[in-house]
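Let's do one together. I've listed all components of the complex below, 639 residues spread over two lines.
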Amino acid sequence: MFALVKKSLIFLVLLAIPNFIIAEERKFNLGKIATKREIAGWDIDVRPDGLGAPLGSGSAIKGEEVYAEQCASCHGDFGEGLDRWPELVGGEDSLDTHDPVKTTGSYWPYASTMYDYIYRAMPFGVAQSLTHDETYQVVAYLLYMNEIIDEDFVLNDKNIGKIKMPNVEGFLMPDPRPDIANVNGNPCMQNCNTPTKIIGKARDIDVTPEEEKS
Amino acid sequence: MKKNKQKELKINRRELLAGSASLGVIALSSKVGYSKETNPNNLPPNVPEWTGELGEGVDANPYGMPSEFENNVIRRNVEWLTASTESSVNFTPIQDLEGIVTPNGLCFERHHGGVSIINPKDYRLMINGLVDREMIFTLDDLKRFPQTNKFYFLECAANGGMEWKGSQLNGCQYTFGMVHNVQYTGVKLSDIILETGLKPKAKWVLAEGSDSSGMTRSIPIEKILDDCMIAWAMNGEALRSEQGYPARLVVPGWEGNMWVKWLRRLEFGDMPYMTREETSKYTDLLPDGKARMFTWVMDAKSVVTSPSPEKSILYKGIQQLRGLAWSGRGKIKRVDVSLDGGKNWQTAKLHDPVMSKSLARFTLPFEWNGQELLVQSRAIDETNYVQPTIHELQKLRGVNSIYHNNSIATWKVNKDGTVDNVRLG
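Okay, and this is what the predicted structure of the assembly comes out as:
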C-alpha cells in the first residue's frame, strides 16, 4: 500500500515538475507542449538548404512513370501544360522577352521548392498523397526534362539542397520601393503636363464577362 | 457590363432626360421575378401595396440577407483567368458599396485549393522551430489571449494585374475589386510568442494553411512582432469559411497572399523558406528578366467607384463622385480627383474614420451636363507617397510584373453617361 502511494507520488511529481517550470516562464499558461510525433506529421516544409527534406530518393527514370500517372493529365506528357494548367518545362531565355514563360526550369530558383510544393499541394485535389520516394522521383523527372540533371541522377534528402537551378541568380532583394519619383506629397494640381489622348479602351478588347441574360 | 442592362439604361435615361414622369427609379436587379419597372400604383397619392398587407414576422429570417432588389451586388469572377474555380479569384463589388466596411459575404475570395470546411473543435495551431517551447493551441486557447480589434484592408498583390499592358477589363469590380476591408478580432502574435518563447536566431516565420494547397509564406520576424495577428472574427462574427474559418493570419498593409487562411502552423527559422508562392509567384518580373522578390507592402492606391464602368451617370446636374483609397504604409492623407485626364486636380473630401492600413472613403460633388469626362483619382499617404501613373510604373518595371499595379486608372464618361475603362497616352 505504502509502496503504491509512494510510486504514485513520484509519478505525480515527475509529471508536475516540467509543467511547473514551464508555467513560470509562460505568461498565460495556455496551449500544450507539442510532441515530436505531432510535429513530425505537420512539419513538411523543405528549405533551400535541404533542411526538412525527408529521408527518401528517386531518379527521373522512375519519375517518368509517376509523372505520367499523376501529373500528365493537367501538365501534359512533356510538361507543356494543357488548357490553362501551368507549363513545367522549357521557357529558357524567355524571361526578358515580351512573352516570358515561367517554368520550374526557367524561373524557379530552388529545387527544394519543387519538392515542398509537389508534396504539400499536388496532385491537385489529392494533396499529400504521394510517398516521399515518389515525390523525389517526380522532382528528378522535372529536373531531367529541364536538362538540369541526368536521367540516372538519384535525387535524395542529402543532395536536394545542392541542385543549382538556372535562375537562382534571377531574383532581386531587398524591395526597392517606393521606386517612384514623387514621394514629397506635392503633386502638380493645375495645367499639368500629362498625356490625355485615349490610346486604348477595355470595351474594344472585349474580354469582360457579361452577365447571363435574365 | 451586361449588354441588355446597358440598353435598358440607355432607354431609361433617354426617357428621364426627356422629362418622362413615369420612370422615377431604375432597378437593375436581374435574377428574381421582381418587377424592374416603377409601378405607378405605389406612388403618391396611392397607397403602396406593401402598406395594405402584413410583412414577414421575426421568425422568417434567423440570419438576414440583403433586399432582393440588391441581388446584383455580388462577387463576380472572370472565367478565362484560371484553369479551375478551386484555384481562382473573384472580385468585391466595390462599385456598389458605401463607407469603408466590406460586408462579409462580399469580400473577394482567392483560393489555391478551394474552401476548406473545418470543425472548430478540430482546429489546432502548431508553433514549432526556433522557439523555447514547441506548442499546440486550440481555438478556445487563442480566444483566451488578450484580444485586439482592428480595421485593415486586404488587397491581392495581383489586383489590377490584367491592366499592365493596357485597359483590358471594363469594370471597376474586375480591375480594383481584389480588395476588402473588415474589422478583425483576434490575438496579436507578439502575445502568443510570450507563451512559446523565441530563440535569438529566429528571424523568419513560415505561415502554413491547412487547406488543400497547404498555402505557405515566409514573413520576417520584425513584421510578426509589429502588428501581425491571428483573427477568428470579421465584422463582429466568426470568419467566413472562404476567409479562413476558424482562424487566419492578418498581415496589415502587406499583400493578401501572406494572410494565410485556415492557419495551422507557424514555424520559426533563421532564413526564408522560399515557398512556391514567394518564388514562382508573387515575384515581380522586370524587363531585363530579373525579378523582384519579397515585395510585400501594398503601395498607396485609390479608385473612383462611381462613376465607373458599372456606374453610368443617369441624370444631368449634381453628381456625388465616390471612391476608395488605401495605403499599406499607413493612413491616407489626401485624395485628389481630376475630371480632365490628370491636367487639373481638386482635393476630395475624406470621410471619418481614416485609419492606418484601412480603406478610406472619399467623395466629391460635381456638375455634369452631358460632356465627356476623363475621371481619375490620386491618393497621397502619410509618408507623402503620391499614387503614380501607369506610365511611371511601366518605365520602372515594364509590363510583365503582374503584381503591385497601384497606378491611377482613367474612367471616360461618354456623352450618354456610360463609362469606359480607358488608357491615356
